[in-house]
C-alpha cells in the first residue's frame, strides 16, 4: 500500500491582525519541516467500524482524521468513501509530537483528505479540499495546498505561496501540553495589540530569514508571550536563537 507523508510546519512568524468572532485573524509564514512527518496508509481490516491504527492520546471521535472523514462524507455523500472506510483502516506512523505547534493533527487530516481524493477519484479541486479541511481546523488548508512556504492569513483559509528557499530547522519540543484556545484567549485578554497595515505589508514581503534576523522571538510570534504567561515552565526551555512555533510548545532554530 502506498505511504503518504504528512509533514510538520513551523510558523517562522505569526502576528495577529484582528478578531473574527471567537477566532483571531493572523498573518503568518508557514514553512514545511522537511525531515519531520507522519506516515499514513490504508490497511485492510476485518471489522466494518471506522478504525485508525496508531498511537494517539485522543479518542477516534476526537481524531482529526475521523473529523476529516465526516466532513468529506458530508460534502460528497460518496458511497465509495463509506465502503473504503469499512474495508480499510487508516494506519498512522506518528512522528510529529502532539500539542506542539507543529500542526501534526492538521497535517494528518489534510493528507487523509488528499489520499481519499486520489484513491477514490473524487476529482475534488485543491480549493474544495481546503474548504472541507478548514472545517476540521484552521491549519488544515496550508497542508492541503502543500507549499514549502506560504503566507497564511484570515483565520488560516487564505494560503498564498511565498517564494523562498526551504530552510532546515532544529526543532525542540518541551513536554508541555499546550492548549491552542487557551493561548489565543490569553492573547486577547492580556496582550491584544494587532499589527498595523505598514508592518503587515513589510512582513508579507520579507523572507523568513530576514524576519528572524530582525525580530526577537517575542516579536516574531504574538502567541509567545501569552504562552509564557499561561505556561511559565516554558521559560526554562527557551534557548538562545530559538524561536517559538504557533501556540507552542515547540521551539525551532534555523540550521
Ligand atoms: C496557532 C496555530 C498557528 O499555526 O496553530 P498551532 O500552533 O495550534 O499548530 C493556528 O492558528 C491554530 O490552528 P488550529 O490548531 O488548527 O486551530 P483550530 O483547531 O481551528 O482552533 C482551535 C481554537 O483556537 C482558537 N483559534 C484558532 C485559530 C485562529 N486563527 N484563531 C483562534 O482564536 C479558537 O479558540 C479555536 O476554537
Ligand atoms: N491526528 C492527530 N494527530 C495528533 N493529535 C491529534 C490528532 N487528532 C486529534 N488530535 C488531538 O489534537 C490535539 C493536538 O493537536 P496537534 O495538531 O498535534 O497539535 P498542535 O495543534 O499544537 O500542532 C491533541 O488534543 C490531540 O489529542
TrEMBL record:
GO molecular function, one term: 4-(cytidine 5'-diphospho)-2-C-methyl-D-erythritol kinase activity
Pathway noted in the entry: Isoprenoid biosynthesis; isopentenyl diphosphate biosynthesis via DXP pathway; isopentenyl diphosphate from 1-deoxy-D-xylulose 5-phosphate: step 3/6
Pfam families, per database record: GHMP_kinases_N
GO terms (BP aspect): isopentenyl diphosphate biosynthetic process, methylerythritol 4-phosphate pathway; terpenoid biosynthetic process
EC annotation from Swiss-Prot or TrEMBL: 2.7.1.148
Binding-site list for ATP: 97-107
Active site: 9, 139
Catalytic reaction annotation: 4-CDP-2-C-methyl-D-erythritol + ATP = 4-CDP-2-C-methyl-D-erythritol 2-phosphate + ADP + H(+)
Domain GHMP kinase N-terminal: 63-146
Keyword annotations from UniProtKB, A to Z: ATP-binding, Isoprene biosynthesis, Kinase, Nucleotide-binding, Transferase
Family: Belongs to the GHMP kinase family. IspE subfamily.
Name of the protein in its database record: 4-diphosphocytidyl-2-C-methyl-D-erythritol kinase
Gene that produces this protein: ispE
